[in-house]
Amino acid sequence: xxxxxxxxxxxxxxxxASFIVNLSVRNADSKIVTNVPADVSGDETKALVVxxxxxxxxxxxxxxxxxxxxxxxxEYTKGDEEAKKKKNPVMALKLRAVDGGPNDMKVEEAxxxxxxxxxxxxxxxxxxxxxxxxxNSVSLEPPMEVDWKDRTPVLTYDQAxxxxxxxxxxQLPGRAKAVSMWVHARGFPYTMEVWIKDFKGDVHILxxxxxxxxxxxxxxxxxxxxxxxxSDTYPVTRVAKxxxxxxxxxxxxSGTHSSTSTRNSSDVYVFFDQIKVLTDTYEVYFDGQDxxxxxxxTTNTNPGTQK
Length: 307
Hints:
Layout: H1 2-27, E1 45-51, E2 68-72, H2 81-87, E3 90-99, E4 122-130, E5 137-141, E6 155-158, E7 163-166, E8 170-172, E9 175-186, E10 190-197, E11 203-205, E12 209-210, E13 214-222, E14 240-249, E15 268-280, H3 291-295
Antiparallel strand pairs: 1-15, 2-5, 3-4, 4-15, 5-14, 6-7, 8-14, 9-13, 9-15, 10-11, 10-12, 10-14
């Protein structure tokens, strides 16, 4: 009797273990089935720094490589200086690298997968002032896209120009679940949006959040699961990229604007530091996945032994 019970227990345990392993394999975020299935984890979720602003470059022309700022309404640039002062709806608009950062912000270890976040000496500051309250906004655009790991330039095919061109954006490695950043505000009635672009070229605006607070605060923007970040061809993971940060004026809870809002026509300062992405970096593995490097002549390895 005891032998039968022991046998049943062993059989049940083995079936349960097999079910758990199979479930882990099925839950691995890959549309490709290979002869090397996912291990028990099948999930490599981690937080990676994708911008630390330590070596940032600021530019004044959109075609140049660096952080770039625009406004809505746009600055008035016609006529002489006196005419600009009288008619310009934008009384101040400036980006600058600023010394300092949040005391509570974590500094990355000596080894960082992206090589970023090891220091916190600099942050990105924006100063703006609008002449009139209303549907005013400021947009910050990141530098030209580079590969998140080896920092080499990335080109995107432009249908209109029919050629590969550099495009602004910060790559979000893996399959991003959330984007976070440290924000320093001064209690002005503005909201902030994060725009990301998927590999198909569609732009998604993550849920806006209020920056009507004072001091440094970490802000987290969840990335909806319906944003495409994977394919059924190799490589499975297709990175999205952060293409814009928008600061938008709101004078009250209902979202209407008041012509007597003096706060909205004051000098506004907002600062940013350490942009991170919470992401699953798991990637399918298979024999010969790097053979294309031999085809392009980028390695000297014997193609017959290349994995």
